[in-house]
Amino acid sequence: MLDHLVQCRYDGTVTTLTAPTPREHELLATAAREFATAGFEHASLNAVIRACGMSKSSFYHRFDSKQALFDRVVDEAAAALAHELAAPDPAELAGPNFWPRLEAFVTHAVAALAKPAWYADLGKLFYLPDVSAERSAAMRRLLAGVDGWVQAVLKAGRSCGAVRDDLPASLQAELAFAMLQAMDRWSVAHMDDMKPAQRRRMASAQLGTLRRLLAP
């Protein structure tokens, strides 16, 4: 899972969300699992409300629709994942250790994602067949953040000679982003079938494939 292992930077800035209360955390975690299991359209708000022991009036005081709840789940999951992973500042990657630093980050990310955590459902939410970035403002923000980070990483790599510069930067970024999304989609679909050691090898192989595309 490479394409969402980055800090959530929206439009060049870091979006800060108010930390959820324990009650809100329970609601978000329950909703994340419901969406990940049932999909967006078939997810049951009543099931979420019952599981959290809430009244409907209390729920609708917080969220006026299923879409609003979904977007809040994505925003909070992305923020929690960003905090856990602490993706490196792209500018700090420039130098002779560009690729080893990226590999160290991926290794750390795979280990972090192996820990039981509610926000681990983010990958599944991102590839639900019945919801898209066109429909979800939170997913658009997340995509923009990932895209911006990838472009900044490539710029840092090009500046130090670790990334080839024979292609226009914009084309190179599109190719890299498309490959990352394809890898991530496959990984999310097969994550539950892989043991930790297999996940590490797969992440390393994915980064190696990306490096063969991008390195001079």
Poorly predicted spans: 1-16
Rg for CA atoms? 18 Å
Class from secondary-structure proportions: mainly alpha
Order of helices and strands: EEHHHHHHHHHH
Q: Biggest sheet, open or closed, and with what strands and sense? A: 2 strands, antiparallel
Cα distance, first to last residue? 24 Å
Helical content band? 55-70%
Spatial order of strands in the largest sheet: 1-2
Mean pLDDT: 85
Shape: elongated
CATH topology: Tetracycline Repressor, domain 2
GO molecular function: DNA-binding transcription factor activity; transcription cis-regulatory region binding
InterPro entries: Homeodomain-like_sf, HTH-type_TetR-like_transc_reg, HTH_TetR, Tet_transcr_reg_TetR-rel_C_sf
Keywords: DNA-binding, Transcription, Transcription regulation
Organism: Rhodanobacter glycinis
Description of the structure:
- This protein has 216 residues and is mostly helical.
- The chain has a single domain (9-17, 67-214), classed as Tetracycline Repressor, domain 2.
- It is 65% helix and 2% strand.
- It contains ten helices and two strands, in the order ββαααααααααα.
- A two-stranded antiparallel sheet has the order 1-2.
- Strand 1 (9-10) and strand 2 (13-14) form a beta hairpin.
- Helix 1 (22-38) packs across helix 4, helix 4 (66-85) packs parallel to helix 8 and helix 8 packs across helix 9 (169-190).
- The radius of gyration is 18 Å and the shape is elongated.
- The model is unreliable at 1-16 (pLDDT under 50).
Task: Spell out the blueprint of helices and strands.
Layout: E1 9-10, E2 13-14, H1 22-38, H2 45-51, H3 56-62, H4 66-85, H5 90-93, H6 98-113, H7 122-126, H8 137-159, H9 169-190, H10 196-214
